[in-house]
Specification:
231 residues; 11 helices; 6 strands; flat
């Protein structure tokens, strides 16, 4: 599933991204639409547009015009109210998540909401300076091993353990508002956010695929044209 993209759009060239990153996005697409790509499928994919067509063809659910992001918002609002009752009229797309998930017990509250919804939202992350610090220590450990293998392994172990713990106990919010979170879970857990998982809005599929690529690769959606080529 290692693919690369090539695009002549000025500014960002998608073939600069590592093939494994592209593969990771394909895994996310499989997960959100609950489909599976085969090697023969991917051999036929030459453009970003053909990838979108492949996904649409693999999604067998019946079509429904209902908006998945809207349904994700209602599902999220209901989950929040079931665990920590709030006047539903106070919960709006522009509501700040910092108001819903107070920092002192944020990890526990988010875990409760995830349990209610039935999937992991990947909402929390550590402070970036902590990630950078342990990442630099990990790189330094590689160099240290040339002088002392034991010291290098110890530093590497500390760095890896630090990154794991930072990921587990991080409290920083990846998005700011309830609306942002609704969009996030709608693209990452598309079918699970549908009121009726036996239906899809086929008009949304291409957009959700584009959002997954843009979000994970941190690129502007405008570079993800139908003509963008895999190479």
């Amino acid at each position: 599933m290692k693919l690369n993209l090539k695009n002549n759009t000025a500014g960002i060239k998608l073939n600069d991204f590592d093939a494994e990153d592209i593969g990771d996005v394909l895994l996310k697409i499989e997960k959100t639409f609950q489909i599976n790509f085969t090697d023969s499928d991917l051999k036929e994919v030459k453009t970003f547009g053909s990838l979108c067509d492949l996904v649409v063809n693999k999604v067998k659910q019946q079509h429904s015009d209902s908006c998945t992001t809207q349904q994700a918002f209602y599902k999220l609002r209901n989950a929040i109210n079931s665990k920590n009752p709030v006047d539903k009229y106070l919960l709006k797309p522009q509501t700040k998540l910092s108001e819903i998930f107070p920092r002192d017990n944020r990890i526990e509250v988010v875990a409760d909401i995830e349990a209610e919804m039935g999937f992991h939202m990947s909402l929390l992350q550590p402070k970036q300076w902590i990630v950078w610090a342990f990442s630099l220590l990990l790189l330094a450990a590689v160099g240290i091993t040339f002088y002392s293998e034991i010291a290098g392994y110890i530093c590497g172990g500390i760095a890896i353990l630090g990154l794991v713990l930072a990921g587990k106990f991080g409290k920083e919010l990846k998005v700011k508002t309830l609306g942002d979170l609704s969009e996030k879970i709608a693209r990452e857990h598309y079918l699970k956010c549908r009121r009726d998982a036996s239906t899809v809005n086929r008009a949304e599929v291409n957009q959700k695929i584009k959002e997954l690529f843009a979000d994970y690769l941190d690129v502007e959606p405008s570079v993800l044209t139908k003509e963008a080529r895999f190479a």
